[in-house]
Amino acid sequence: MKRARIFEIPALRNKTFVFKDRDEAGLLLARMLEPYYKESPETLVMGIPSGGVPIAVAISKRLNLPMDLFIVRKVQIPGNPEAGMGALSFAGGLFLNQDLIDRLGINPMQVEGQIERVRRELARRNELFRQGRPIPDLAGKTVIVADDGLASGFTTLAAVRGIRGAGAKKVVVARPPALTRPWKGF
């Protein structure tokens, strides 16, 4: 497996509320990606709903690349809808934190039950957000997957697994280096 290359702006380390909104954060990421991917054939941007969509739109516009959605949801810990024990993508990428599952004593039937709930929610969201369309053909492509943050990392890991599983030759994760101000309604 290739080692990941991480690009960052050191001046933004340990900062909060760096961007006024997700559009501004996406524009910064687009500028960082521009030398490598502007109008790059066989490259597309995929945004993770909902917060990753404005990031993906900014990247797609600036780099003149096609954009689509990549739907991923966390697999919740039974009895605690705010906490996750993993994540699953509509394309089938699954990431489970087995150490956490074991520590909490969650049995395999409970895990499968939660995964099945997520599958139903992913199908519903695919119908809502993508009108039931399958994901685009990713075979041999470079995919820039955009999200608006990184908490546990489960969603990102499931997205990367799903995109790789769909045949992408390269996956680039683009996320803002710091939190944005909460948007209206939060």
Major beta sheet summary: 4 strands, parallel
**Overall outline:** globular
Q: What is the CA–CA distance across the termini?
A: 39 Å
Q: How many DSSP-defined strands?
A: 7
Give the second-level CATH assignment, the architecture: 3-Layer(aba) Sandwich
If helices are DSSP runs of H or I spanning 4 or more residues, what is the number of helices? Answer: 5
Beta content: 15-25%
Stretches with pLDDT under 50, minimum 5 residues? 179-186
Strand order of the largest sheet: 2-1-6-7
Q: What is the arithmetic mean of pLDDT?
A: 89
Work out the count of structural domains: 1
Assigned CATH class? Alpha Beta
* Series of H and E elements: HEHEEEEHHEHE
Question: What is the element layout, followed by pairings?
Answer:
Blueprint: H1 22-37, E1 43-47, H2 52-63, E2 67-69, E3 72-77, E4 80-89, E5 94-96, H3 98-104, H4 108-130, E6 142-146, H5 154-165, E7 170-174
Parallel strand pairs: 1-2, 1-6, 6-7
Antiparallel strand pairs: 3-4, 4-5
Keywords:
186 residues; alpha/beta; Rossmann fold; four-stranded parallel sheet; three-stranded antiparallel sheet; 7 strands; 38% helix; disordered C terminus
